[in-house]
Write a structure and sequence with these properties.
66 residues; mainly alpha; 2 helices
Length: 66
């Protein structure tokens, strides 16, 4: 299996999916808090982790597709 970097489409697809997952996870944390439940994760946790993943995807993308 050869290791290659992501192209522009792959970067867009992964980044878009991550952004949607981050929004959904953050909303679930907020909803739990608003319903009197104690979430395991604090608000902002998924944003922080998601942004780190997006940065990693960017670093693993071809220079011409940055």
């Amino acid at each position: 299996m050869s290791k290659t970097k992501f192209n522009g489409f792959e970067k867009w697809f992964i980044t878009t999916a991550l952004q949607e997952a981050i929004k959904q996870a953050e909303q679930e944390v907020i909803n739990m808090s608003n319903n009197g439940k104690t979430p395991i994760y604090a608000e902002g946790y998924f944003t922080m982790v998601g942004n780190e993943l997006i940065d990693k995807v960017n670093s693993m993308t071809l220079k011409k597709d940055q």
